[in-house]
Amino acid sequence: MSTKLHMLLAAALCCLLPACASSGQAGNAAQAPQPAASSQPTFTLAADVNPYTGLPKGENYPEGQRGVAVMINNVKTALPQSGINSADLVYEMVTEGGITRLMAVYRDYNAMPVVGPIRSARDQHVQLAIPLDCLYAHIGGSSYALDMLEAFKYPDSLSIDGKYKNFYWIDAQRRRTLPQDSCVYTDGTTFAGAVERYGLDTAGEPEPVFNFLPYSQADRILEGGKATEISIRFSSYEDSELIYDPTDGRYYKYEFGEPQVDAAAGGAVYSADNVFLLFTEIGQYPDRVLAQVKLENGAGLYFCGGRYERVRWMKGAGEQPLRIVDNQGLEMDVTINPGNSYVAIVGMDQLEYCRVDGKNLEELFLQDAG
To answer: 0.85 cut: is pTM over it?
Structure first.
């Protein structure tokens, strides 16, 4: 590698690190403005917009009612999952031992199909659920997650766990060959019945999760370049791919070398309109088992319509939401096209293994550097 190319690559990679931004010249990196931990989104959306998707609310929209986030098992032996294609938002992060867990978010819990297998809470997912002000369905949880739920008064008012029974069932057929944590499910009728039975507080209209483009406008074309195949490595255990289909404008997800299918949708492959690949530092708690995910700020990529764009992300403490902001350090919320979204939060140590259209991200950022 030539010296010039090496310097360009170093500058490009520095742009990706949470605390740095390129100065615009090869080999020189300047400190970028750092997002304030307490900053809040400044945008507003029209009253007829679903705050989770940016799409029209529609006739059966649950006005003034909280949504729900459901923890879903994602180990290979627990597949196939159910209900993921009906989710408005899906977040994926490592939990322990390199495995990942999904948090599927539904604006209308009454309309949920069969969803599961339901798994336990982890604090990194709880940190993203709290700003959504939603109900939270899980079976048990780590001490860190349960402490966080307690601190924000979730066990008494919003969580469906512990003393709240009968919001789920065990799939007897699967239980013949699988452990119980791969066999727990719920659906809209069962879940709504439990919410009513226990008198949980369901009142509240969510804040918008992104700065959505008005749905009446044509989708925004992302400026970074073409992106039809996204390869994501969460760990040595978990690799995923998202493949763009130009016929419907969606990214279809694969993991463990196979399509990630939804049993509740007739075996359809999980797909999303928007894909976010966000990088952060991921270590371990003192037990050396559970993943400790740093949710403060960092760099990432936004994918939509077969193209990508470089972005940054930020997350303040507590109720403050995850924000997707511009790459110039101005804290301007990026305009996101309407649709459902998949958010992958990945460790910086996996950066070199992630690719877009066959290029590792070092090459992609080098290309962007010119």
So the answer is: yes
